[in-house]
Amino acid sequence: MSTMGNSTNIFWQESPIGKLERQKLLNQKGCVVWITGLSGSGKSTLACSLSRELYTRGNLSYILDGDNLRHGLNKDLGFKADDRTENIRRVGEVAKLFADAGLICIASLISPYRKDRDACRAMLPDANFIEVFMNMPLELCEARDSKGLYKLARAGKIKGFTGIDDPYEPPLNCEIEIQQKDGDCPTPGAMAGEVVSYLEEKGYLRDH
């Protein structure tokens, strides 16, 4: 019996089928691919391309998209610092469950604060947290502005917008860094290929 947060007198219920059995069934190893970066840096593009590439290879993945989750799980949260922290904590807990289920969970969120991303990494006891940093310059992201958010932020109509009037803290020791090469952005396929190569090298795409 234990107490967790505001929950008291609770018990952990073990399942007769564990992570190893689920991974064997799927012939892959569960992990979290956490894609972080500024708005417009290409996070969702990479997430979708990666998911498609894994699907064609016979690997099961699931995307946790930051905006999509704010339509449901996190719709009660805003964008103040405390809300951002709680947003990332919830996504981290869900991502942990997907990884435990044996899936390759692709989390795509700005997740601007280093301590919040590190807290999610710490949730995975076997260190199956792969941080992918979309290291694109602010000027490029703002020029893309596919959602029109930078324009609104510059006009003062959005407060606390990451990269404009709220900080983005880049990873210090990410597993993968995606950036421009000779001034050109890598294609979605090339970005996905880089992540797939890492997953393959580390043995996540098979269960042996």
From TrEMBL:
GO terms for molecular function: adenylylsulfate kinase activity; ATP binding. GO terms for biological process: cysteine biosynthetic process; hydrogen sulfide biosynthetic process; sulfate assimilation. It catalyses: adenosine 5'-phosphosulfate + ATP = 3'-phosphoadenylyl sulfate + ADP + H(+). Residues 29-178 form the APS kinase domain. Gene3D superfamilies: P-loop containing nucleotide triphosphate hydrolases (3.40.50.300). Belongs to the APS kinase family. This is Adenylyl-sulfate kinase. It comes from Theobroma cacao (Cacao).
